[in-house]
């Protein structure tokens, strides 16, 4: 993956990073609000040594004192100094507790030593620091005094008594919040990338093209208004109709593996809910509008939908339930007897699914199916077969294998790449040519579609009424969109 892929993941799942960042800031604030403030009091000591008065001796004594400072820093946190200080304080604090609060820091390149003691109360911290510095002075004096008596070789005096701390040590509330935000942002970005890498949904047409190893013939935008129609309104224009016209044009130039034009097309998908049946209906309507003879075949026998979607009459629906493709495959009827011309008044014909077969894993006999499709091939320019999803029924692959090729429908943002790969493998196993891919539900067109609908509504409201409604005037003819002029003329 390149940096562009990671940026796309962050752009898609930005809300994950935002939520985790806010959580980090909240945790930082909670820690700042619930933590008890800690104060630190510091006393400063001066280390000196006995020596001569010459310049050389003074220099040597200074070096000796600097070396002593490091040793005295370790002595300040010793158990002996802590025990003496605790005994002096008489506050009940234990030696180990007091020792854990002491820290000693030699001042670099000097003979000064800082003794710091921490406590939740500033006065107590000051008292502890004074006691520790006093006891350290006494311990050092005892250690530096020879057993034979005399003056100690080195000594320590308190230069500055312990200070009274005005402010607690550690990060402020704001600093804790900022640290939490920074940590949350880092964790959020990592989590965002992880979520993106684990998301196997198809997001881009480039991934669909790479997976199916076929050209994406069209990318149909998500149009909420399409669900309310039986067939796409081809005269309305707009992004959806434009892309549908693009699909028709590209389909007429598509070729199968042997170089022929595909006339019997199986429209298939990996899973349900990817827009397969809608593509069949709208593609049939568009091809019909451009002058082609088209028939759609409902081969999704386990879950037929075309008869209901096309708005057939009650009599036609009753007939479709009694006879259809399933009875043709069973040898009970001929194709001509079950064909419904001008289905729902949309211009193309329909071969309904018929009674749903019960039992048995195979309901698509290759020989009878080829004979039925041969009859339809002779009567129509295009035969569009709505197949079952390949993830739910392997029969869909046999259906697709009976035609000239397959048109694979994928839904952006929903189709899972593993499922699509399995579907393509199934088609390859039945030696089915993949003519092309159609991507559906492309996002980002909602505003453009809404603006186009408002424009149509305003145009309809402002259109002048005519006495002869059956004869459009010149203005109406000029304004009427040539919805499928882009599709091209009927092929010779």
Please outline the helices and strands:
Elements: H1 3-12, H2 14-34, E1 39-49, H3 55-76, H4 79-89, H5 95-101, E2 102-106, E3 112-119, H6 122-144, E4 154-160, H7 173-198, H8 205-212, E5 216-221, H9 238-253, E6 264-269, H10 276-289, E7 294-298, H11 306-309, H12 314-322, H13 325-329, H14 335-338, E8 349-351, H15 366-379, E9 382-386, H16 395-401, E10 405-411, H17 417-429, E11 434-442, H18 446-462, H19 474-479
Helix pairs in contact: 1-7, 2-7, 4-5, 4-6, 9-10, 16-17
What's the gist of this structure?
The protein is of the alpha/beta class.
Keywords:
alpha/beta, Alpha-Beta Plaits, Rossmann fold, seven-stranded parallel β-sheet, 48% helix, disordered C terminus, YlxH/NBP35, Wzc-like_C, ATP-binding, transmembrane helix, P-loop_NTPase
User: Sheet with the most strands?
Assistant: 7 strands, parallel
Structural class: alpha/beta
CATH topology of the largest domain: Rossmann fold
- Number of folding domains? 3
Oligomeric grouping of the chains:
single chain
How much strand content do the residues show? 5-15%
The number of distinct β-strands equals: 11
Shape: rod-shaped
Indicate the CATH architecture of the largest domain: 3-Layer(aba) Sandwich
Helix content class: 40-55%
Rg, alpha carbons: 43 Å
One letter per element, helices H and strands E, the order comes to HHEHHHEEHEHHEHEHEHHHHEHEHEHEHH
CATH superfamily of the largest domain: P-loop containing nucleotide triphosphate hydrolases
InterPro entries: Bact_polysacc_biosynth/exp (IPR050445), P-loop_NTPase (IPR027417), Wzc-like_C (IPR005702), YlxH/NBP35 (IPR033756)
Biased composition (Polar residues): 458-469
Region (Disordered): 451-492
GO molecular function, one term: ATP binding
